[in-house]
Amino acid sequence: MDIENMKAFNKVAELKSISAAASELHHLQSNMSNKIKNIEKQFQTQLFFRHSSGVELTQNGEKLYHQFQKMILLWEETTAIITNKEETILLGIPQTSFPTQFNDIIKDFYTQFPNKKLSIVSGTTNELIHKVVNRELTIAYVTELENEQLLQDKQVISEMLSQDKLVFAGKTKGISLQKILTEERLYVFSKQCYSYRALASLMKDLNVETASISEINIAETLFEICKNELGIGIIPESIALKYHFLTYETLPDEYAKLRKTLIYHTDHPISSAEKWLIEKSKPAFQR
């Protein structure tokens, strides 16, 4: 079995389209169709269900896809070892959002890919997007406000992983929104982050100009302040739940909605090692 045929099969499975896979791999669609037919002939089983909008893996196709994934990874790893080719993956993650389970993923990564390097950079969403656009990062996980268009007209491919929402962390129950904004000391992780932009937008729409806003980029410190009723934090609900801080109220809907997204440059071909890392780390960043 030719390794390129395996890659072609897996690309069709991932894109659920023979024509889309042919276009991405720069093959003629007829050649791609023949590759699939020859693989089905070799294994004497149907591997795809064909329908008007594309293709779907059959049960045997699903099994073969996972086997081919392993074989492609092994082949690329073998090639890298023999040619002494070293790949460095530059991964961007949001400030204050480093998942605790990611340490285990990193250990597994170096076990799986001993000749590859992983460099992790943290930053605000705007900083990470800028670094991906300028190819300073290979892939990045970012969080953005749903009503913003930060990725528009950028040279990035994005995949939404999950949604989140901003909350006021602290004792706010029974207190009016106007009073929170005018009388409470408010805290955000950074004045460059989405929390501050959402808060600024809310204040502008309510004609509030006197809010006291400070930066604290250490989650534990911010929660200690909120716990002792020394101020109110504006943070994602997922971070509040991560630290078991349950005293919070959601911001008004139009200012609260967040989306967590995986991004990489349009010209960057995702390697097998990167694909492995993405699939393993997705669940951690979806929370």
Please tell me about this protein's structure.
The chain has 287 residues and is of the alpha/beta class. The protein folds into 3 domains: 3-83, Winged helix-like DNA-binding domain superfamily/Winged helix DNA-binding domain (Arc Repressor Mutant, subunit A, Orthogonal Bundle); 87-163 and 260-286, D-Maltodextrin-Binding Protein, domain 2 (3-Layer(aba) Sandwich); 165-257, D-Maltodextrin-Binding Protein, domain 2 (3-Layer(aba) Sandwich). The chain is 46% helix and 24% strand. It is built from 12 helices and 11 strands. The protein has helices at 3-15, 18-24, 29-43, 59-83, 102-112, 125-133, 177-183, 194-205, 219-227, 237-242, 253-256, 272-286, and strands spanning 48-51, 54-57, 88-94, 117-123, 139-145, 156-169, 185-188, 212-215, 232-236, 248-250, 257-265. Strands 3, 4, 5, 6, 7, 8, 9, 10 and 11 form a 9-stranded mixed sheet that branches. Helix 1 (3-15) packs across helix 2 and helix 2 (18-24) crosses helix 3. The longest helix has 25 residues, at 59-83. The radius of gyration is 23 Å and the shape is elongated.
